[in-house]
Predict the 3D structure of the following.
Amino acid sequence: MANLPILQFEDKILETVNQNPVVVIIGETGSGKSTQLSQILHRSGYTKSGAIAVTQPRRVAAVSVSRRVAQELDVRLGDEVGYAIRFEDRTSERTCIKYLTDGVLLRESLSDPELKQYSVIILDEAHERSLNTDILMGLMKRLIRLRASNLKVLITSATLDGEKVSKFFSDCPILNVPGKLYPVEISYTSEQPKSYIESSLRKAIDIHVNEPEGDILIFMTGQDDIEKLVSKLEEKIQSFEVGSCMDALVLPLHGSLPPEMQASCCFPLFVTCGSYVRVFSPPPPNCRRFIVATNIAETSLTVDGVVYVIDSGYVKQRQYNPSTGMYSLDVVQISRVQANQRAGRAGRTRPGKCYRLYPLAVYHDNLLDATVPEIQRSSLAGSVLYLKSLDLPDIDILKFDFLDSPSLESLQDALKQLFLIDAIDENGTITRIGKTMSELPLEPSLARTLIEANEYDCLTQALTVAAMLSVEGTLLPGRSKSSKSTEKKRKHPPSELPDGSGWGDHIQLLQIYELWDQTDYSIDWCKDNNLQVRGMLFAKDVRKQLSQIMQKIAKGSLDVRRKERRRDREHDYKNLRKSLCAGYASQLAERSIRHNGYKTLGFKSQLVQVHPSSVLREDEEGMLPNYVVYHELISTSRAFMRNVCEVEMQWVTPILQKLEKLNVNKLSGGSNQPMENTQEDQNIPKKDGPTDDSSSRIQAARDRFLARKANK
DNA sequence: GAGCACTGC
């Protein structure tokens, strides 16, 4: 710790912090900013008037950095130094340096908007621009006005956007702290390669044959490409004559890789160190490792021994389109911040080399400075509800001061969603329901479902569904297209797993969890049924947390098993589906008269299909239900509804009526459009910007609805 | 009849 670069700047840092409410710290990898900034301020007495909070975008980082700091200060973790992450709070009354995830700090500010317990708040890794950090930055700007005399805010960022952050905070000072990276020699291709898999393959083999020892880290976009490149590399390496060059080990590295897979190839030792988690034991002697990874190796995992980096220049990014309500997963060019982060991975242990598979001109002219922040790529219903629930008199959501503002369309999309599920009223004011919803660590649709379920006496089932939906990829992990036998198995699942009784995927998730509960949460049962163990355990944690929050207002028992109950399951399912309908009021779809295609019934109509993985059942005539709610719209080869549940038309009508009343100008507080059309108050169908065709559409839907009703 | 970058409350 003695030779960490940041310690040479201790006086300068203290002087700047003493004189300014906000300071931006540019600190590269290895500067020690994550572990030292808090200690420097602690030493100079800032913890006398309150604690120091240091936020991290990732849980592992919060845990490992706090552990390190406790070690350096020679205190027990949880005493003077502690951490708080979801499901785990290791702090005490004595804690004066507290590491936490940005999400946890946001939760804390819900009960204490001025965050009075802290004298210093450090937002670490702000350049990653996580949704939560962005919101925190906006809140900090307001907080330093309110607490000018007794709050210091430090924000750490990357070289390329430090200026921007400084400007945001009224040109606050920027301090540069050098890192401890070794020099990395960067080279470019002369042209954009046609196939970056082929191009990576050639470059990797070229390094292997011509360059001295040192592992190679190759950044690809996803599992598919990684698997392709891995097998090509292995093939190529096997074709070399024995002894012509050093041994090689090719390792895939991506998020959906089960832990035991990693174990079988490389005996992983998960040793935490600094803010990083180190994977893999050192390679055998005279053996070069080829690690083919997604951007998980950019920040979340550090592989020791990497000397060469091959950067494809691309990354897969999930984006939300507020005009269609649809998500898509696109391959996009990385940003310059990301490119530099990737290059830096080559210089951690000694001087390295980074091969960018794109021309220098592309780096300069085409790449964005920084990655498009998450806040501009996500549905904002949850964040808007959060900000509304803070009930800050001086904050207007549409004018909230974001470092990068989301589009007006995106904010209005969020407001409409919230209105349809009763979280805000027609004037955009948060309702009591909305207030309760904001206390739940769930997306608004599921939070609303829980509240409705409490009224219909099926809260315990709704808790389970919400917990299961909080996990992604609970069912059948990974695809094994290598073996044909498993493909056949998939068509006729050998498992005994329930099928949702035909009602849809939510009910299936409930039934699976209830079965698991009956096995006393057996790990083997999960494995036997091809359920991802990690995911199931996560669902159990979430369910427990949600139960604790709902306990206060729960009308019945929240046990998974309700032994005293005699009622039939269909009745439970019906209530549950009814609750889901209220929660997913902005995620409704109506089937076409003649075929099994659907049209979404929100303010923006889309033609969509039920995802083929759904267990939703067709009737005797091969038709799917007339009305469904969906958890998510995802655009891949087509527009699909993922996780679908049948609802009944009489539940849908009131929602359609509410849709007609929807007036986005009023929801926005009317402040951005002073000339309001007063006709809207009288419920007269009208034209209204992006929602203009919705009235006639809804009218048509109601006509069809009435026709159906008449036919029955 | 199809396919999953990465986080997080």
Summary: Residues 46 and 157 of chain A are 22 Å apart (CA to CA). Residues 585-711 of chain A form one domain. Residues 260-278, 478-493, 671-694 of chain A have pLDDT under 50 and may be disordered.
